[in-house]
């Protein structure tokens, strides 16, 4: 390779980087006005009780449809909003909208279910997070027992008095807590016990492996028994086929979520009277 060649390569590479950072800056800028421009919405995905195939909860998942940029996936913009701090107002909007929707379902006469809301580690570390939850429950009229907050394992690495107090206060309020994407991070098992979470959600990568290899079976079975040993209920994410469902039911997994039961959809497209019989 000649020096010139290397320079040429480098130039191409840095141009790509520039394009990426321009896109990122655009996203950062557009995120600021996305809420006021009503570009954000929530979709809801059913969580099914695997003992009786009934709906037990809905998970709220944020959707961003930008008029020019199109659909931008949450896995892309949530991390950016966490870096810019935008997640705090975005997360408040999600929590409010999801609680209001769950109350509306109850007011329409549907049997009450839980609403599961993803909460960023950044949100949970805000001084006024618990106060925000209290206000939203008051404003929407939703009883705390129908709200569940999903946090990822990264929260277990945060060892502060503020976090312990907040988790304790949320528990006192009657809000449930679950650990999302379980198995992908570094969970200290002693923390898991100390914080007394209600539920574990097995990451969908392991559930997907059930029909592919033995490791998927071994890992999901181990997580289910771990959860039960610690008196937690366990939800399997990303169930897509009969093989996975049958295996999980055989291992006494409590609940399931995935395209097999239903995709995330706007509230208006859900019929809650449907019994999920498969
Ligand atoms: P998550 O909380 O683990 O949500 C589950 C993700 O798996 C969702 O992706 C859902 O659409 C997808 N999924 C569900 N069932 C299946 C299946 O059977 N197969 C496959 N392949 N995928 C399935 P989505 O909606 O793109 O969200 C991605 C992640 O973005 C979420 O993962 C969550 O970490 C984050 N997120 C979404 N909404 C919010 C929010 O309002 N606040 C925060 N902080 N994070 C959010
Ligand atoms: Mg989740
Ligand atoms: Mg998950
Ligand atoms: Mg996830």
Write the element-wise H/E pattern from the N-terminal end onward: HEEEHHEHHEHEHEHHEHE
| Alpha-beta classification | alpha/beta
3D shape? globular
Span of the ends, CA to CA: 61 Å
Strand proportion, as a percent range, falls in 15-25%
Enumerate the strands of the largest sheet in spatial order, edge to edge or round the barrel.
1-2-4-5-6-7-8-9
The distinct bound ligands, ions and cofactors come out as:
ligand C2E, magnesium ion
Indicate the mean pLDDT.
91
- Find the count of extended strands (DSSP E, 2+ residues): 9
Protein name: Diguanylate cyclase
Organism: Planococcus kocurii
Features of the shown structure:
278 residues; alpha/beta; binds ligand C2E; Diguanylate cyclase
């Amino acid at each position: 390779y000649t020096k010139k060649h290397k320079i040429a390569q480098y130039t191409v590479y840095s141009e790509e980087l520039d394009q990426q950072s321009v896109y990122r800056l655009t996203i950062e800028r557009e995120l600021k006005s996305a809420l006021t421009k009503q570009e954000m919405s929530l979709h809801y995905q059913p969580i099914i009780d695997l003992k009786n195939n009934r709906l037990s909860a809905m998970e709220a998942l944020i959707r961003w449809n930008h008029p020019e940029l199109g659909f931008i996936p949450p896995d892309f913009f949530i991390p950016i909003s966490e870096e810019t701090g935008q997640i705090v107002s975005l997360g408040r909007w999600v929590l409010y909208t999801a609680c209001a929707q769950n109350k509306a379902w109850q007011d329409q006469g549907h049997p009450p279910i839980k609403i599961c809301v993803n909460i960023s580690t950044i949100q949970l570390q805000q001084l006024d997070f618990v106060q925000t939850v209290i206000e939203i429950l008051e404003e929407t009229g939703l009883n705390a027992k129908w709200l569940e907050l999903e946090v990822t394992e990264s929260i277990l690495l945060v060892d502060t008095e503020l976090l312990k107090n907040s988790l304790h206060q949320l528990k006192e309020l009657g809000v449930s807590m679950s650990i999302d994407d379980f198995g992908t991070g570094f969970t200290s098992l002693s923390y898991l016990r100390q914080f007394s979470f209600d539920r574990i959600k097995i990451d969908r990568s392991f559930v997907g492996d059930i029909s592919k290899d033995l490791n998927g079976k071994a890992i999901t079975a181990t997580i289910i028994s771990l959860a039960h040993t610690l008196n937690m209920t366990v939800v399997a994410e990303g169930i897509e086929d009969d093989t996975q469902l049958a295996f999980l039911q055989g291992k006494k997994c409590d609940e399931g979520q995935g395209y097999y039961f239903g995709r995330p959809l706007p509230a208006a497209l859900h019929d809650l009277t449907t019994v999920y019989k498969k």
